[in-house]
Design a protein that fits this description.
25% of the residues lie in helices and 21% in strands. The chain contains twelve helices and 26 strands.
Length: 561
């Protein structure tokens, strides 16, 4: 390790001096890069998908933070894949020198080295490829800051697939480049690097640590993941048991007042994937603590952990050894437990009774989905990226004034005068509205989409300016075919949205028209959009969590079923 002993083991291990020298060489390379030294350091089991594989990447990053010498091991013989659409390092604006690392967990059973019936077998037709885990790690060396954003897998977005709209997790079948494109084009988050992995080595990662300890305040059960643990202050989990924790999204719990001793009759939590993200964030904290307790510093012992992780990692072609070393050197002292972990807010599509409903889009049934929630989504993205509401999230530069943006509006819901009312409200905010019209409705409930026809920074910024001026189920999308009337941006209206009211009086001094703040629409009775979820949420009383300090771990005891 750079600048300090490796814990007593280094002197007796051949080649460790070479590792240190390599780390020093990378350190020098970093300083030469900019000519200066930075002041800051920089339902059914066969369809159930393992989110927890992405945890392996977190282990890799945590291990790497132990010392730059390990970058050799981390980067030697890595799998590489060509990823299109990656942004280069930003050099200007509020996001200068920051990086966003896309971390994707693949569900491909057919790509596994060993087939496991617990995951579903490729030979039995379980051959779907999805990204059930999508996380973005934001690294800001200037301010010595890391932040993590999880994107729920059922978020329905216009450019999820190369063929168009779908759940965001469906894009991986077209390759990780498509996942990058959908996040950049629809969410406005620039991606500098991408990492993907499948999940067959997850248990090995935990086992390489000697297992982990978690507290179970209530007895919990999940028939889909296999989780079945009786309440205990501190339980020692091996890799397979930890796998069951991070996979659980149909969790049942023995709540106070429950009369049945049979776990299959216990109440079931209602948030499914969102609840699993909450627990996975806690698992990351527990795992980071377990890694830290290993006393990272002995290349021999640490090599077992690193090798257990890197075999199934695939990195983009542009992430060089030096770039990884820079990440290590900039953030080696960061306490991973203090890193903000946010989840993109989403709004469930519900039926008239307020329960989860299926989305019918252009005649196809997409099952239960989640819609975006502007401005809550933008607020979470801004918080992770460290920018304000007047900053272009893709470039870090100031957004253009509304008066410089031309907008047309198409009525996509069929509600009377919706295009004209929306255009009027945008005009009050200063936008140049250049046309209105009608387009075919995609269904009874629909997102409002802010389309733009060019991926140039100026056009993307124009679209973001319009999107930031709206609330509700609103999202951006790149699609030249949808842009009309020679405008930079075309808004295709959906259901349950609004144009924000102006923050200052209109030019003649009178109060703004009521349409400026009340163009929100109500969906037909066939479906509706629920209130958005929060960006952060506390653990629920039944959620597994870190063990109390000083607690003695015991073996897990199953519940009666």
């Amino acid at each position: 390790m750079l600048g300090r002993s490796s814990g007593g083991g280094a002197a007796s291990v051949a080649d460790t001096s070479g590792l240190t020298a390599l780390g020093e060489e990378m350190h020098c390379s970093r300083n030469k890069r900019s000519g200066r030294r930075r002041s800051g350091k920089r339902g059914r089991r066969r369809y159930r998908i393992l989110r927890g594989a992405i945890i392996g990447l977190a282990v890799l990053l945590v291990v790497a933070l132990g010392g730059a010498g390990y970058v050799y091991y981390v980067t030697h013989d890595l799998n590489r894949v060509n990823v299109g659409g990656l942004n280069g390092a930003l050099t200007t604006g509020q996001e200068a020198d920051t990086e966003n690392i896309l971390m994707v967990g693949s569900t491909s059973r057919c790509a596994l080295a060993e087939q496991n019936p617990a995951y579903g077998l490729c030979s039995q037709g379980v051959n779907g490829v999805n990204s059930d885990v999508i996380m973005i790690l934001h690294a800001d060396p200037t301010h010595h800051r890391l932040a993590l954003l999880s994107i729920p897998r059922d978020l329905f977005i216009p450019n999820a697939r190369s063929t168009g709209a779908n759940k965001v997790d469906a894009g991986l079948v077209d390759g990780i480049s498509q996942v990058v494109a959908s996040i950049e084009e629809d969410l406005g988050i620039p991606i500098q690097h991408a990492v993907s992995l499948n999940f067959d080595q997850f248990a090995n990662i935990v086992d390489a640590l000697g297992g982990i300890n978690m507290s179970f305040p209530m007895s919990v059960f999940d028939a889909e993941s296999g989780l079945n643990v009786h309440a205990a202050t501190c339980v020692h989990l091996n890799g397979t048991q930890a796998l069951q924790v991070v996979r659980a999204r149909h969790l049942q719990y023995d709540a106070p007042g429950t009369t049945s001793s049979d776990a299959e009759y216990w109440p079931q939590e209602v948030q499914s994937d969102l609840a699993r993200i909450r627990r996975d964030h806690e698992f990351l904290r527990v795992l980071a603590t377990a890694v830290a307790k290993q006393g990272l510093g002995n290349p021999i012992t640490d090599l077992n952990l690193i090798n257990s992780v890197k075999a199934d990692l695939t990195f983009d072609q542009s992430w060089s050894v030096n770039d990884m070393a820079n990440l290590v050197l900039d953030f080696h002292s960061v306490n991973v437990n203090s890193v903000p972990q946010l989840t993109l807010p989403v709004a469930l599509v519900t039926d008239p009774n307020g329960t989860d409903g299926d989305l019918i889009y252009q005649g196809g049934n997409y099952g239960q989905v989640e819609f975006p929630a502007q401005s809550q989504d933008q607020g979470a993205i801004d918080q992770v990226l460290g920018i304000g509401p007047t900053t272009d999230s893709m470039t870090g530069n100031p957004l253009p004034a509304p008066s410089s943006v031309t907008v047309s509006v198409m009525n996509g819901s069929g509600l009377s005068n919706q295009a004209a009312d929306t255009a009027s409200a945008l005009s009050v905010l200063g936008f140049q509205t250049v046309g209105v019209g009608d387009t075919a409705s995609v269904g009874d409930v629909a997102e409002t989409v802010v389309y733009y026809g060019s991926r140039t920074p100026a056009t993307e910024a124009a679209a973001e300016t319009v999107a930031r001026s709206m609330t509700g189920s609103v999202i951006m999308a790149y699609d030249p075919a949808q842009v009309a009337d020679g405008a930079q941006v075309t808004v295709v209206t959906g259901t349950q949205f609004a144009v924000s009211a102006p923050s200052t009086p209109v030019a003649n001094g009178s109060s703004p028209s009521s349409t400026s703040g009340t163009t929100a629409t109500t969906a037909p009775t066939a479906a509706a959009i629920a209130a958005p979820s929060p960006a952060t949420s506390n653990l629920q009383p039944w959620d597994p969590r870190a063990c109390p300090a000083g607690a003695t771990p015991t073996a897990p005891v199953p519940n009666p079923t």
